[in-house]
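Reopening: NitT/TauT family transport system permease protein still failing for me.
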Amino acid sequence: MAGDSARASRSFAIILIVHLAVLVLWQVAVDAFHVPKFILPSPLATVQTLGTASYAWGANTLVTAVEILGGFALGAFVGVALAVIFSWAPLLSLVLLPLFVTLNMIPKVALGPLFIVWFSYGIIPNILIAFSICFFPILLTTARGLREVEPDLLDLVKSLRGSRWTLFRKIQLPGSLPYVFSGMKVGAILAVAGAIVGEFIASERGLGYLMIQVQSALDTPAMVMAVVLLTLLGVALYGLVLILERMFVVGDARQT
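Support: Ran it again with your exact input. Result attached.
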């Protein structure tokens, strides 16, 4: 345990130092080459835009966070649920999975205007766009994980007259968790992209909406700040998935 904590602390320190070094190099390069602010603002100039009250950074960040988290949560729930259903009903998987593959090929930018027509403006269409982008990787990886359980374990439970629920709870679900979280990691990244796609198409609030507004004024520091906040939201969601993975996958492995 102590060794694992030390390694985790050392890894975190290295990651933090690398990020700080990039920020320092960015600041030094902008100052040394006198790069105009509208082309590439320095980190200090970017942070200073947080004091602009008219941009409502807190409210717009909260809206985008709700869209990202809502789309991701819906995608994770639907993706895992469908994968479980497909594992229990192979014929249904044969019928519907190719359809989902085809639907996933539709450019999500093209779906944006349709979502606006169907659901009007607001948070809901952007949540649905984020969901439509992030749920498919979760579905595929979870379905693969449920299929790749050791056949000997399945035969053992069946020979002991275990029910389907027992088979799923004791064997399939624990064995598929690494696949589930792998899909969720990809989904966390895609959910951020999906929410911003929706805000770019048509929105009245959010960081994507703010970026469109400040673009006309060539307020590049504000645009960069919006990108930084989006990145932080994505990192926070990805970190949450890592924590859950450590709790349910690594923790179970240690107990066994």
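The mean pLDDT is 86. If you still see a failure, please send the error message rather than a screenshot.
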